[in-house]
Design a protein that fits this description.
Layout: H1 2-19, H2 21-41
């Protein structure tokens, strides 16, 4: 299951890169802030 989510994430990243660079950056920032908030909670 972990491998599948990885492939899905990489595919999404590649798709966003080809489509809109700014949107990919936005998703990366949202993901990073989410990871940081989770890291602070634990």
């Amino acid at each position: 299951m972990e491998g599948f989510s990885y492939v899905l994430r990489v595919g999404f990243k590649h798709f966003n890169h080809n489509r809109a660079r700014g949107e990919e950056m936005n998703k990366a920032l949202n993901w990073w802030s989410r990871v940081r908030s989770v890291g602070e909670v634990h």
